[in-house]
Specification:
This protein is an alpha/beta fold. The chain has 2 domains: 181 residues, Rossmann fold (3-Layer(aba) Sandwich), CATH 3.40.50; 67 residues, no CATH class. The chain contains 9 helices and 13 strands. Strands 6-7-8-3-9-10-12-11-13 form a 9-stranded mixed beta sheet, sandwiched between helices. The chain has a 4-stranded antiparallel beta sheet with strand order 2-1-4-5, with helices on one face. The chain is globular, with a radius of gyration of 21 Å. The protein binds iron/sulfur cluster. Iron/sulfur cluster binds next to loops. Iron/sulfur cluster (SF4) binds next to loops.
């Protein structure tokens, strides 16, 4: 359904490469998560995956195909026609995207059209949006409110309803739970689970919340400074092979953790300028060897796990001698 290959984005004014040669695939019913720290390229990847690179960024290499259509080659009109009907993105700041003086039913319902392009009236819109909002804790009265009358979390859920209301085949969610409290986060996850399973909707979930990704997704892609460094199936038995994925996992807060008991990943991820030289994580990695700063890490495959690291083979062997390990050398499309 969605195929991204070799995608490289460049921001000329800042002279940085927010995404470098990233590939991914989402089919109907798939749940794929992209994880990484802030500034790692998740938002840039999410927007480019619907054919709208973030302002100030351009696609310099690669392709984005959705249901066989090259999204980057489509005219604005044809791309807008697909948007919301067959694929939809819920941006991180969705709560700031509604018209400030319009009631929410009107803003959210703008994406609904009758055949022939006719707009729907209030009652018709409410019939579509209320059943989607109610399981996420939205009340009927919320739809008549103006944006300033609702909390950030309520508006974020309205944004999710707006993305779902046309029954798209693919949903791209950028940090969908960041404005939600624990109760509404749980409601949202439960509803998304049921709604996507019933319809076979594919989801690309971009989040820094590794706990959410591990609990909800089937497959996890780890992005660091715009490069994919590991791809692994989600689940409790899977052990990350890349030092960055392990650091992310160690820093993830779990239920029952004492406040402040988890430490952030050490150091800072600086944006990538041009092409990476050696491993982009070398300056933060406690396991780096001389080679890491000079040569691009090779792709190592271990079963359904793929990792780009010079030392990955040595990490697989101690815990599973039966694993099929294959080092494939450098691969351009990640
Ligand atoms: S390639 Fe080297 S620096 Fe990069 S993650 Fe692996 S061990 Fe660390």
């Amino acid at each position: 359904m969605l195929q991204v290959c070799h995608l490289t984005l460049y921001a000329p004014r800042r002279r940085i490469t927010p995404v470098w040669r990233v590939g991914l695939e989402v089919r109907r019913g798939d749940r794929t998560a992209v994880v990484g720290e802030s500034g790692g390229g998740k938002t840039s990847l999410a927007w480019a995956s619907v054919g709208y690179p973030v302002p100030g960024q351009t696609v310099v290499e690669g392709s984005v195909r959705f249901e066989g259509v090259d999204l980057l080659a489509l005219s604005r009109e044809r791309r807008a026609d697909l948007y919301y009907r067959r694929l939809a993105l819920v941006p991180q700041n969705v709560q700031d995207t509604f018209h400030p003086t319009q009631p929410l039913w009107k803003s959210v319902g703008e994406v609904l059209r009758k055949e022939g392009g006719r707009r729907l009236g209030r009652q018709e819109i409410l019939e579509h949006v209320e059943p989607l909002g109610a399981p996420m804790g939205l009340l009927a009265s919320h739809w008549d409110a103006r944006p300033h009358e609702l909390s950030g979390g309520q508006k974020q859920r309205m944004g999710l309803v707006q993305a779902m209301v046309n029954d798209p085949h693919l949903l791209i969610l950028d940090e969908p739970t960041h404005a939600l409290d624990e109760l509404n986060r749980a409601r949202f996850i439960r509803f998304l689970d049921r709604w996507t399973s019933e319809r076979g909707v594919g989801v690309l979930l971009c989040t820094h919340d590794l706990g959410l990704a591990a609990a909800w997704a089937d497959r996890i892609l780890v992005l660091y400074r715009g490069c994919k460094v590991e791809e692994l199936p989600a689940g409790p038995m899977v052990r990350p092979l890349h030092p960055y994925t392990r650091a992310l996992l160690d820093s993830a807060v779990r239920l029952g953790d004492a406040p402040g008991s988890r430490s952030a990943v050490r150091g800072h991820a600086l944006p990538l300028e041009g092409e990476p030289v050696g491993c982009g994580y070398a300056d933060r990695c406690a396991e780096a060897v001389d080679l890491c700063g000079r040569e691009a890490p090779p792709l190592v495959e271990a079963g359904r796990q793929r990792v780009w690291c010079h030392c990955a083979v040595g990490r697989v062997k101690p815990f599973n001698n039966q694993e099929q390990i294959e080092s494939k050398g450098e691969e351009r499309c990640r």
